[in-house]
Amino acid sequence: MTYTEALAYIDALKPGGMKPGLARMERGLSLLGRPQDKLRVIHIAGTNGKGSTARMIQAMATANGLKTGLFTSPAVTGVRDTIQIDANPISEAAFAALTGELAALAPAMGEAGELSEFELLTTMAITWFAREKTDLCVIECGLGGRGDATDVFDHPVAAVLTPVSLDHTAVLGHSVEEIARAKCGILRPGCGVVCSPGQPAEALGVLLEEAAGMGLTVHVPGAAAAPIRECTPGRLVFEWEGAPVSLSLTGAFQRDNALTALGVMRLLETKGFPFDRAKAVEALEGIRMPCRQEVLRRHPLRMLDGAHNPHGIRALTETLLTVPEEERVPLTLLWGMLRDKDVRACVSLLAPLAARAVCCAPDNPRAMPGEALAALFREAGVEAVSADNPEQALVLAREEAGEGPLLVGGSFFLASVIRPFLTKE
């Protein structure tokens, strides 16, 4: 199978969408000899901050000499970038070979049925990491925790819970407590547990209860001991253990993600993994996060963000308010969202800061039509138009923004498509 054929094969799985249950994962991994049992895993669940936290852990572990696998989702800069070792994506040749190998398993899958797109990528990542003999793997949950395609590790080194909020309520539950309980499904007896310092009290209470039931201690890094010293677009400085940490990232929430990642590294140290503070901090300072409050240009402001729920949008608006008014007014939005999100709440949060919005449907079966989204913006008092596709929306948004600020977001599926065009500016 060639790389082009592999991409086409995976593309053909997309219409099948998400499939509940672990039967296919368990069957597929069993046919492959249970590669997950050969991995030392940091398993991460949460509503927001999973991807950033995962990349930070991987960077610090690699800097400390550990061959470190990373599996994240969704694809932002290309599908191969979701499966990495030491920040290097899986090669086209390895990707194609593994896709062919997994496709060939189909007849042996029996009653379990065909792997979904996400299940295939998860299986590919686990198999590749095992064959490459990684020292550590950082695995981000796709949806929830218990029953997620990644929920196949019997003995993770650590389970990590980033902030939990309302999202995917039709699947995970209609309260923060219900969603947190689903995400706590990645806990296992004997594993270390690290929780974000920004965890809502309702979710933290559930985590403490679930952990206590397994005799586990929950480590929560202290935010009070890590004051933020500077927070501007493209730069965040905070103190940690008495010394400054400077990140080339945007948003105060990244401090909490960094503290969570540092907490994981300190936990690993107690388990015999190497940890050098200077190497870890240097690795953090080199991190870049595509489409996560990513500032591509400051004058005029060009920003991309994949935030797609009220918690993430609130963090985005807080960041925007730190930008001098003359740099963020009048703000043009290029926006697209999935219809199963709390779109109205997100629009309400954005409306006070937006002068106009150009709306379109992201490339996803669950996308909200652009005109329906534009109507919600108009209801909220924002001038809004719709476009037939992301490329046309970008043309309109550039015309509307001119030399003024432009913010692209609402979904990683939209931001990732627009990003290559804006990076060429």
Any overview of this molecule?
The chain has 16 helices and 17 strands. By secondary structure, it is of the alpha/beta class. Helix content is 40%, strand content 16%. The protein is globular, with a radius of gyration of 21 Å. Strands 4-3-2-5-1-6-7-8 form an 8-stranded mixed beta sheet, with helices on both faces. Strands 12-13-17-14-15-16 form a 6-stranded mixed beta sheet, sandwiched between helices. The model has no long low-confidence stretch (mean pLDDT 95). The two termini are 36 Å apart. Helix 11 runs parallel beside helix 13 (343-350). Helix 8 links the parallel strand 7 and strand 8 (218-219).
Low-confidence stretches: none
User: Order of strands across the widest beta sheet?
Assistant: 4-3-2-5-1-6-7-8
Query: What value does the Rg take, in angstroms?
Result: 21 Å
Mean pLDDT: 95
Envelope shape: globular
Total helical segments: 16
Could you give the count of β-strands?
17
Give me a quick take on this structure.
By secondary structure, the protein is α/β, with parallel strands linked by helices. The chain has helices at 3-13, 23-31, 50-63, 92-103, 117-131, 169-172, 176-183, 201-213, 253-270, 277-285, 310-320, 325-328, 343-350, 370-379, 390-401, 412-423; strands at residues 41-45, 68-71, 83-85, 88-89, 136-140, 158-161, 192-195, 218-219, 228-232, 235-240, 243-247, 294-297, 302-305, 332-335, 356-359, 383-386, 406-409.
